[in-house]
Amino acid sequence: MMLKHAFAKLDGHLQEALKGASSALLIRVFGTVLGFLLSVMIARLLGAEGTGIYFLTVSLVTIAS
Asked: Given phi > 0 = left and psi -120 to 50 = alpha, else beta, which region is 11?
């Protein structure tokens, strides 16, 4: 409740910036969690050697682009 009262006192531009920043943070955290889960799935499906080859290939493509 106190946070809501303090948030209401902020001017419009700062309030808009805080909303945008918090949205961007949530999206980034969500993307990071999904990326981690994808890495775990790839590791489970491909095994150690296959995962190494996959991530080496991804790294080389990223560097080349």
From this structure: beta
Average pLDDT over residues 7-14: 74
From CA 25, how far away is CA 1, in angstroms rounded? 22
Place of tokens 């909303």: 19
Give the containing element (helix H, strand E) for 61.
helix 12-64
DSSP one-letter code for 10: S
- pLDDT higher than 70, residue 46: yes
Helix H, strand E, coil C: the string for 41-55 is: HHHHHHHHHHHHHHH
